[in-house]
Write a structure and sequence with these properties.
This protein is an alpha/beta fold. The chain is about 45% helix and about 15% strand. The protein has two domains: about 10-160, NAD(P)-binding Rossmann-like Domain (Rossmann fold), CATH 3.40.50; about 165-260, N-(1-d-carboxylethyl)-l-norvaline Dehydrogenase, domain 2 (Orthogonal Bundle), CATH 1.10.1040.20. The chain is built from nine helices and eight strands. It has an eight-stranded mixed sheet with strand order 3-2-1-4-5-6-7-8, covered by helices on one side. It starts with 7 loop residues before the first strand and ends with a helix.
Length: about 260
């Protein structure tokens, strides 16, 4: 399949990933329809790219060349089972869903997984986001690579197994880190200070991790194995049980990791 601007896309999904992908794809291809179980989401996204929309699976257009699927992992197959036609080329964007979930519904299929966090409220330059692609055959791979290169300058071939590990790494980097910010904010609320006082620290922490690498950027009592300070902090956190457990677990992990490097 030679990918051209004349080819039509149906986008199944209207969440955060779909919002950014569909808007970018609409600059290179003709998106003819948005499907979402939530009619308001479907209508909103379709208004951005000037196409039709539906929340009825039986009304999904059958005349598209490419079907993008950006749905919650636990409903992908449920939606696929209700399609009453085979898709010429189908592509899902999930980090943890195996490529073969598409095999019974499309002769040509694959994955374009963006390693990034998405929110409709946040503007993103998708051209700098790494996309990890996989396909069921060489024909599909060529097509999917061409599509991905219209989205980003950074595309990589990637197996389902490695993609799942990348997704886990992303969860640690983004979701867990953001949760730690939330716990920090919880502690701050009892000091009378706002989250703003942590922003320079957050900025410098991320900057060092990017410039130096995380291994060379680690500081604090755990990397020094300063048990006096660690125990004092744990005592202060007695009334913040969730924070106390997290502090203890992460400190032990840092100490163990550092000791392991010393023994290498």
């Amino acid at each position: 399949m030679t990918i051209s601007k004349k080819q039509k896309i149906v986008y199944i999904g209207a969440g955060n990933v779909a919002f950014h992908f569909a808007n970018t794809l609409s600059k290179h291809f003709e998106i003819i329809q948005i499907y979402s179980r939530n009619i308001d989401n479907a209508k909103f996204l379709s208004s951005k790219i000037n196409c039709s929309y539906t929340n009825n699976i039986s009304e999904i257009a059958k005349n598209a060349d490419i079907y993008f699927i950006s749905l919650k992992d636990d409903i992908i197959e449920d939606v696929l089972k209700k399609l009453n036609f085979k898709m010429p080329l189908s592509i899902h964007t999930s980090g943890s869903t195996d490529i073969n979930i598409l095999k019974n519904y499309s002769e040509n299929f694959g994955v374009i997984y963006p390693l990034q966090t998405f929110s409709k409220q946040s503007e993103l330059d998708l051209s700098e986001i790494p996309l990890f692609i996989e396909a069921n055959n060489n024909f599909s791979l060529l097509s999917i690579k061409q599509i991905a290169e219209n989205i980003s300058q950074k595309t990589y071939n990637c197996s389902s197994e490695n993609r799942q590990l990348l997704h886990i790494a992303g969860v640690f980097t983004n979701n867990f880190t953001n949760h730690l910010f939330s716990l920090s904010n919880k502690i701050l609320k009892n000091t009378g200070y706002e989250f703003d006082v942590l922003k320079p620290l957050i900025s410098e922490t991320l900057s060092k991790a990017i410039k130096l690498g995380p291994d060379k950027s680690q500081t604090g009592p755990a990397i020094r194995n300063d048990k006096n300070i660690i125990n004092k902090h744990l005592e202060i956190l007695e009334n913040y049980k969730d924070c106390q457990k997290m502090y203890s677990f992460v400190s032990e992990s840092i100490i163990k990791e550092n000791n392991g490097k010393k023994n290498d």
